[in-house]
Amino acid sequence: MKINALYSAVLLSLLPTSSVFAAAMDRSGQSISAFLQPNNYFEAGLSVLDPTVEGRDAGTSETHRNIEDMGNDYYFPSAALKLQVTDHISFGLLYDQPFGADVQYTGSNVFVTDANTTILSSATMSALRSSKIASSTPLAIEAFAQKAGFSVAQAQGMYNNNTPTPLGNTKDLIDANVAAQVDAGIAQVNGLVGQGATRAEVDSNNLAMIFGFQPNKNLNFYAGGVYQTIKGQVSLRGQATSVYNGYDATLKETDGYGWLVGAAYQIPEIALKASVTYRSKVDHDIETQENLPTISALGLLGEQAAAAATQIATATGDTKISTPQSVNIDLQSGVMKDTVAFANIRWVNWKDFELRPVKFGMVSEVVGQLPSINRPGGFNLLQYSKDQWNATVGVGRKLNEQWSGNVSAGWDSGAGNPVTALGPTEGYWNVGVGLQFSPAPNYFIAGGVKYFWLGDAKGQVSSQNAGNDYVADFSDNNAIAYGLKIGYKF
């Protein structure tokens, strides 16, 4: 069994639909396979994902409305160039968009602001109104006494007895005036909430420069540097987002550097190849513009919170994030004439990922003091509770000199459940098929499609991170991915 007899089938395992709907924000899968192709090689690919992610208000939400599809379609390109400089030295450039997100809520649900949206839940608002009325009434009695020329004791007696006056009964007048002032203040605060829907978008670019050393035909040791850019936008809206309703953050594009290292072993005569690749995390300090029109509403939570609101309003600073470290394991072997089996395993360290912009974090430290939240150290805008594991297995077969095909199945663990409502799925199962056409031995065109059964998940808002509470339930969702790739050997 010769490698040239299996070459077309082997390439099919590299179609760019391998990880287009993985856990958290993992997208491309960061494959190293193009760099391990023999001789000189170039490829370019495009992947498209069409997800359907629907659910309903649930958990701590006071409503149970349906949530329409909140997962936007998106696409991302990839490209690779590998040069065999000498018999023992190789060089490669790999480009992809490893991390991303594109979600937007629509319709009528807890992530969309409508005419009935209040800055706090209706139960909390009702309790807050009663508390404000109770604390404001003694002051109103004193003001009444001063205006009418009575002592406070006399005014209190008139209030207690609801003594009639030319304008009406004392208690009725004072209570109505206090209620009107409190309701006007609450209405003003509720008028600060943002209009529209919750949405988020994250884009990244990754360029790896790799050098390889092959001491013999079986071994390949490689390492290189990574240049990465990332940017994003997030808007929080709807009843579920509470005092963050109206929060907007723009994370301006910034760059960072990382590295990778790996080793591969192959026996070309039987199409056996195994590789393991480690990629480091990449640190970013992102210039961030934050806007939160509801900051003044913190005054509803007490004098301390009101004082903190003044500091938060003028706070600035960069947002520090680290895209996660990962390990990829790729395996393939000939199993019979013109047939190869392959497997890919990927681990991504999402458990250590945190996103906490400056103003968001300062508000979280205030809100986190509330007994109902109980996170005195604050909370993150985005985090995950588990690392991601991903696996794909399949078989590729050469059909004739120009055509070959493959079938595959995949599984992804997800990054925890409950999980952020900005990506409310818990992993997936998938099946895929691919087809490749080689008009000549040195180039090909390949296409593939995969169908994903997305895992059911409970959607959380940020204040519920690392807990079991949730505000929405997403189930029976799916996605379809399409991939197209061209390759050229020279």
From TrEMBL:
Its main location: membrane. GO terms for molecular function: long-chain fatty acid transporting porin activity. InterPro entries: OMPP1/FadL/TodX (IPR005017). GO terms for cellular component: cell outer membrane. Gene3D superfamilies: Outer membrane protein transport protein (OMPP1/FadL/TodX). It is found in: Cell outer membrane. The keyword Cell inner membrane does not apply. Belongs to the OmpP1/FadL family. It is a multi-pass membrane protein. This is Long-chain fatty acid transporter. Residues 1-22 form the signal peptide. Keywords: Cell outer membrane, Membrane, Signal, Transmembrane, Transmembrane beta strand.
